[in-house]
Design brief:
By secondary structure, this protein is an alpha/beta fold. Helices cover 41% and strands 20% of the residues. Helix 7 packs parallel to helix 8. The chain binds NADPH dihydro-nicotinamide-adenine-dinucleotide phosphate.
Length: 504
Amino acid sequence: MVTTMRTSSHQGTAKTFDSLNPATGEPIGTFGVFGEHEVAETVARAREAAQWWAGLPGKERKARMLAWKSYLTRYIMRIAELMHAETGKPVADAQLEVLLAVVHIDWAAKNAAKVLGPHKVRSGIVAINQVSSVEYQPLGVVGVIGPWNYPVFTPVGSIAYALAAGNAVVFKPSEFSPAVGGWLVSSFAEVVPEYPVLSLVTGFGESGSLLAKSGVDKIAFTGSTKTAKKVMAACAENLTPMVAECGGKDALLVSADADLDAAADAAVWGALSNAGQTCIGVERIYVAQDIYHTFLEKLAERVKGLRPGDDREANYGPMTMPGQVEVIEQHIADAMACGGRAVVGGLGSIRKPYVGPVILADVPESSTAITDETFGPTMTVTPVSSLSEGVKLANNSKYGLGGSIFAKNKNAAMAAARALNSGMTSINSVISFASVPSLPFGGSGDSGFGRIHGADGLREFSKAKAITRQRMKPMVNLTSFTRTDADMKKILTLASLLHGRKYK
Ligand code: NDP
């Protein structure tokens, strides 16, 4: 059983750092700052582990993954308390996060063989003598660099799929959540003690950079757009492929026919839960003009009783990363300077390390409160003439991660969902797509590229292998120097019949 908060990850490293409770400043544990040598050693051990893990029969890998999910479920209180201590999030939110991670481990374990195993494909008339198949093989060692805001759910979105696809994983958690990261790694070792199939690298950005340069077979990065660019540059050294899950500025659209109470409830949760430190959190709200004032009132009413804190009754916790408070402050100040008004809260809501709920209205689209990721418990609310104007404004963003639409008309909602420039959209709820393990998760533009979760997520951590097996001699052997002009004539006649007809 994993019992200690302090992991042994600092053993052998020249430098160490402490992880602190963001609410109290108390140290949670001491961790090593991994240098080039330590990262290289960890990756080398992971390479051996990868061979063993990939060589296990699929059923055994699945059984071990399921044993891991069972372990996490049984010790949910322990890890949730640690998440609360290290990131400040309420214990119940931490439990919810672990449960979501468990659902993904379960799905990845149970579906890996079906998604990645050999599939026959049609060979087509030209290669009719061939039996063709495709299968997806493990990459080897995957480096996972994770953020602190969802220190279990987010990295597990890559880790579970990479492991289920037969890879070993070296995990570098954020400097703000090394204890949770260490606990996760130790929990896996409890059920897979033979080899370090999942191992830990701790430290600051530099240790992550060393992992990206270490020659691992892929990097799964989750974090800010700015850091993603640095990681991509580091990966370029060895042509290491990368999946990038970055920030967002998600919009919630409210149509005139929407259930306003449900929309307001979801908007408040989407914007304020986890102190707004959610990549797919609601940051912008576009509301049909006709119901704008009613909706704003409902929103303000719901926000009134909510407050941050470290106690069990608090609705959300402190800002985990001290520096983020400045960004929030700048965005609120910019919104106000541009003519926006604070319907609830304002600059006075900032009482470090806490930020009270803030609702901003009449904010011009050019304000940083609308254009940039705030990552705090704030939301902007803007009236629009129609759902399509809402889509247009929502799409006027460098980000393209998630989003939500509240509307009763199913067809209108589906059309708007398709038109939103985002990787994922929830209709009549927020962030539900993250809880459906068979759905791909990821964005475009400044929100990154590639997909985790679902079948796409499993394939992201594998390489396609195409195989043809000749089952009989071809009628005409085109790939031989014995090919004749008559053979070519036959094949050109066939091609003309199959593909040469005029296309109407
Ligand atoms: P950062 O970009 O600051 O850090 C992310 C990770 O990268 C951390 O582990 C960090 O380590 C590491 N890192 C920092 N510099 C480097 C470097 N030069 N080379 C390699 N690794 C490096 O993001 P945050 O941790 O602050 O997370 C918040 C961001 O993550 C937000 O933008 C949020 O939207 C996004 N996010 C996206 C999600 C998605 O699925 N799309 C989900 C969750 C968050 P260290 O902390 O030690 O510096």
